[in-house]
Specification:
Two copies of one chain form a homodimer. The first copy, chain A, is an alpha/beta fold. Chain A has two domains: 6-17 and 100-232, Rossmann fold; 18-98, Putative phosphatase, domain 2 (DNA polymerase, domain 1, Orthogonal Bundle). Helix content of chain A is 47%, strand content 13%. Chain A is built from ten helices and eight strands. In chain A, the strands form two sheets. A six-stranded parallel sheet of chain A has the order 5-4-1-6-7-8, with helices on both faces. In chain A, strand 4 (118-123), helix 7 (127-137) and strand 5 (143-146) form a beta-alpha-beta unit. In chain A, helix 1 (18-33) packs across helix 2, helix 4 crosses helix 5 (87-95) and helix 6 (106-116) packs parallel to helix 10 (224-232). The A-B interface holds A 118, 120, 126-128, 131, 134-135, 140, 142-144, 148-149, 166-169 and B 118, 120, 126-128, 131, 134-135, 140, 142-144, 148-149, 166-169.
């Protein structure tokens, strides 16, 4: 087996606390616009609508970026919850995906891992969104890569293969780092090494995903600093 | 006119001293392999062969990355100069494009400009090469973008337009920063603001290009620190 040269990082949930950040933004927008709602339920349903909506884009004739997808799903979720948030407020929440806070160990962990490996995002967020997000969170990788560059979305195999190709990297020389089993299963299927990072607060206290089962060579780490302890020292 | 939000940077010559770096590498390879040559003539001819070779790729059916292009042109130039450098030495020189030194003001200038603008490369180098180069030179931009993402080479218009699109940027909200007039003329033709950075040593002492004439709104700066003085304060 070749050595690992490249680490690809999932972004939402793995590097950034989308839920805590969006809850703050939603509470703020609601209070500013005089709209009350169970924002936690709205935000969680919005996030649950994400993957099915991307499946639709993947199967459809026209690629849409994440802003367009999330604008649609947010309108549906708000309608379902009977929350009449004006368009300006909805747009604030769509743009809030560019103002997500990193987990406490993300910046230092990424920097330590970057000293040893080439690092890149491999996210369903499009490049412009990721650029804004990484500026906001002051995070650094060697390359901001996105499913956009394959004109598709994870977990489609060619998304992982396109990003590996752009870094001149045999898939077996790369690892996928994510807090989500489905991402790792798909990455491993095309040859990337799976690294599961536990994010026990992703869906609120105690609401983190579990590592996938039956993945050969799976590495499991409690955050990026722990991963750096393991891979860099 | 909209405000400038994004700065795109040419890389070879504008941010990095390709000539000085390659001369050192060539002298080193030559001495190690016992091959003597007028390395300055070889390196300069190699660089002169660059744009015509890219023109051929642009007009051809298959896109080739810069390593492939430079491997061919180097073999031709060495043959022309009757220099028998073994394949291993030629490959060292092709890879030397990933070990170019930045100009003294590049790192600090880029950092100051990044504090005020979104920054990205817009280079004919492919992404994997640029990632290696920016790691080597310890340079930071928000996004490493390349003509590769348009499947073409500068100065083709769609290269500039594709990079602007990836940053969700109207071309009139972006500026192209380069030490080469032809790059700026092409960028300005599709709406980007032209910024000429003088690099008087690019082709050796006194061997820098002149700003293009007749470009409306052209900004001329003596390096990136001076440009930051002008745009950031």
């Amino acid at each position: 087996m070749p050595d690992t040269r490249v680490l690809f990082f999932d972004v939402f949930g793995t590097l950034l606390d989308w839920r805590g950040s969006l809850l703050d933004e939603a509470a703020d927008v609601g209070s500013r616009m005089g709209v009350s709602a169970d924002w936690a339920a709205v935000v969680d349903d919005w996030r649950r609508a994400y993957q099915p909506a991307l499946d639709t884009v993947r199967g459809g004739p026209t690629w849409l970026d994440l802003d367009a997808v999330q604008r649609d799903t947010l309108a549906q979720v708000l309608h379902h919850h009977r929350v009449a948030l004006p368009a300006e407020g909805r747009e604030t929440l769509v743009r809030a995906w560019r103002r997500l806070r990193p987990w406490p160990d993300t910046r230092t962990g990424l920097d330590r891992l970057r000293a040893r490996f080439r690092t890149a995002t491999l996210s369903n967020g499009h490049i412009a969104l990721l650029v804004d997000l990484f500026r906001f969170a002051d995070l650094r990788v060697d390359a901001v890569l996105s499913a956009q560059l394959a004109g598709s979305y994870k977990p489609e195999p060619r998304v992982y293969l396109r990003c590996a190709e752009l870094l001149e990297c045999d898939p077996r020389e790369a690892a996928m780092v994510a807090a989500h089993g489905d991402d790792l299963v798909a990455a491993a299927r095309v040859g990337l090494r799976p690294i599961f990072v536990r994010r026990p607060e992703e869906w609120g206290p105690g609401g983190g995903g579990d590592p996938p089962t039956g993945l050969p060579g799976l590495v499991v780490a409690d955050g990026l600093e722990k991963l750096a302890d393991r891979l860099c020292d």
